[in-house]
Each structure stands twice: as C-alpha cells, then as structure tokens.
Amino acid sequence: MPRAAGPAALAERLPASAAGFQRGATVPVGQPRQGTEVNYATEGRRAAAFVQVLRPEGPAPADGPLEAEAQAEFQRWVTESARGQGPARRLSVAAEFQEPPSAPLLRCAAMEGSYGRQPVQSLVCVGAAGGQILRIRASMPRHTPPVADPRAFVREIAAALRGTPVEPGEPMPPPRGGPESPREAASDAIGEPAPAASPAPRRAGAPARAGAVQLRTPARPAAQPARAATAARAPSQPARAALRAGTTAQRPAPR
User: Is residue 122 part of a domain?
Assistant: First the structure.
C-alpha cells in the first residue's frame, strides 16, 4: 500500500464503521511511541476497540506482521494487554492467527479472562501498514451469542487501509470457559474495572453523596395499629386525674 507521511495521515484512511463498530474520537498518543489512536465502539459500548497508528523506531517497515519491529511489538502488546493497569485485569492467550487469512497484514492473539468480576474476550493485533506500526485491541464481555465479531472488525480495518474488498474469514473462537452464567452476563457494558470499596458510614442528617442511591426504610405496618391500640387504651389526663381522686368519668351520680 502507499506509504503514509506519518501516523495521522494513515489514520485518516480508517473507516467510519467496521463490523458494527462506529468510529469515535481520534487522539494523539505518546507511549510506547508517538502516534495517533482512533477509538471505536458498538452501540451501547457493549464492545469497544481502538486502532493505534505508531511511528516506527527505525526505517519504514514493509507491510505485514513479519518485520522484526512488528514481531517485537506484538510480544510487548500481548504482555501489556494481559497485565493491564493492575491485578483487576487477568487475560491469557487462547489462540494466535493472522488476518486477513490470504494476505496477512496483522498478527493477532485471541485472549480471554476477566476485568474484575466480568468475564471478557479480547483480540489484540500488531502489524505494519503504509510504513507505520499498527496496534489494535477489541474487547467485549463474554456472551453467547457474541456481542460483536472482533476478527471481522480487524479484516475490515485492513481492507480500508489497503483499499481492497473485505476478505471473508473465521469468527472469534469461542471462549474455553464455555457460555457465561446468568451472573456473569448481568453487566454487558465493557470498561476498565474499578476497585471495589466499602461505603463509609454516613452521619445522621448528613447529605447523601452525589450520585448515591438513597434507600428508604420501609414502614412497619404492624407497628402503627399497635401504637393506635395503645393510645386507645391509655386514659386521658382528666381520666387519670379522676382515677387518682377516686372517681371516674363513667361513675353514676349518687341518688
């Protein structure tokens, strides 16, 4: 494919949509090297992806995943994706392959594991195109049927960069853990996990924190009649005074 003047120029060739992923923000990146990142997501962010176009460290590499710089970057990208930003992300490689199948542009690894308590699948790919280095990651909750097809997304990205028709291929391999349980399927929006924290006790009368859900203690219906019955049985102040005086309001007058 034609050499691009730089990462931003090659990023302009990326499509507005690919395999159900819609293009979002384009931002500059500085790590692991200078480049441009284009974000993608499906409706409701049930699956999210991004394509990073990075400036090579040495001479412009040939298209494909076989250059030494692309191979080294693939190993680094897999390690970084598995580790994430802390112990909450735990991913391991389930399978490796190249995309598109007949004329590979990218080397990919299908990964699976969890973000916190949420089981996920992720696809990470690295290759060279237009004299730049490409890094791709697409992630989604583990779900049956899958909420998206990251491999189809990668093939459409490759076709857009090359200006060729999209090549058919295999879908994302099923997770080794099998279908998710109802508990695992409860949260379908993909995102980075946040550490769980126990809520601090709130002083009586203190305002609730913004965004917190306020729970109302349900009334105890049985207590109300009991209090009403107690009030009905309790004599009034004049009646108590009459009792102390040895008379009651109901005692008949002497004849």
Answer: yes
